[in-house]
Amino acid sequence: MARVYLGPAGIPIGAKERKRSAGTIDGIRYVREAGLNAMEVEFVQGVRMTREAAMDAGEVARELGVRLSVHAPYFINLCSEEKEKVEASLSRLQESLDRGEAMGATVVVFHPAYYGKLGPEGCYNAVKDGVLKIVDWMKENGIKGVKLGLEVMARKNQFGNLEETFRLVKDIKHPQVVAVIDWGHVFARNGGSIDYRAVLNMWHEYFDDQPMHTHFTCVKFKRGEWVDEHEPIDTNNPPFEPLAKELASEDIEITIINESPLLERDALKMKEVLLRYNNVLVELQ
């Protein structure tokens, strides 16, 4: 059975309903009250949290037993033809990692790039160069705890299908660089299908029993294709239950961050399904 950390991407709906100006710490407390044990802090529109605020959030999370992760800004493209955009992308990653380290987050997740004129192989090399620069920066700045997570992407013009993401992470061979699976992205990129067992087997082939950090949401079929627009999990595109069933036979630690619009409400539905198949939510301390 899998050992699971489970929670929402961002401040829970219930926390916002209870307090109009709910912040990260309110969200962490609500996650704990709801019976979940993880939360991803969303910097997707920019890093607007001070280092001091990140440290405060981390202290509360540790006290309550909630595992934190971070999603870096969307405005990152390590394959841009414009040097200024690449430099700005690296800067956003550095800011995100600094705050992630301060709060004791496990991973900073980011969307690496668009292929653009470089094409898949040229972009692979550009992303590798960018990540190696970040690895050097992490070493120089004492970033030792948080990892940098390259997310598997949904669109065919984006760098990051399963194979190239896994290959790049293994190629870099650094313990603080990891792959992040978004199950909905895999489903969309595959044209509306996913073989959870095949993905898990591929993970073991590349990374053995390394802990997994993953995202889950359902996606929308629009204008003849599957697109990365988030839907509630009851839409079953992809279905969550087969993943819970496959995880029951896995001796692995996995974090599942729910990115559906229903945040903690869908995460609690996932919890019910996971427990039905004898998976274990890691005990809240």
TrEMBL record:
Superkingdom classification of source: Archaea
Name of the protein in its database record: Endonuclease IV
Biological source species: Vulcanisaeta souniana JCM 11219
This protein's UniProt keywords: Coiled coil, DNA damage, DNA repair, Endonuclease, Hydrolase, Metal-binding, Nuclease, Zinc
Chain coiled-coil ranges: 76-103
PROSITE patterns per record: AP_NUCLEASE_F2_1
Segments forming domain Xylose isomerase-like TIM barrel: 28-261
GO molecular function, one term: phosphoric diester hydrolase activity
SMART domains: AP2Ec
Family: Belongs to the AP endonuclease 2 family.
InterPro entries: AP_endonuc_2, AP_endonuc_F2_Zn_BS, Xyl_isomerase-like_sf, Xyl_isomerase-like_TIM-brl
Cofactor entry: Zn(2+)
Alphabetical list of Gene3D superfamilies matching this protein: Divalent-metal-dependent TIM barrel enzymes (3.20.20.150)
A Pfam family it matches: AP_endonuc_2
GO-annotated biological processes: base-excision repair
